[in-house]
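#help-structures
NK: newbie question, is this the right format to request a structure? protein is BMERB domain-containing protein
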Amino acid sequence: MVSKNEVMQLQIDAMADMSREENRGRQEMLQLWGKTIKQLSDRDEDFTKLGQVSMHLVAAVF
């Protein structure tokens, strides 16, 4: 026979497991978000450099 305390402990354990799983999901989402922001930042830098090179080429032609 299972006591009321054991049932409550099982419920608490299940809730703790769900909480840990949700936390892992949030951590993965934050890591993905961070990688995406880094990629966007790198892309912005590339476009800035490309713009500078383009201006120098246009200036050299004229």
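mod (FA): yep, format's fine, and the tokens are attached above. Residues 6 and 57 are 76 Å apart (CA to CA).
NK: thank you!
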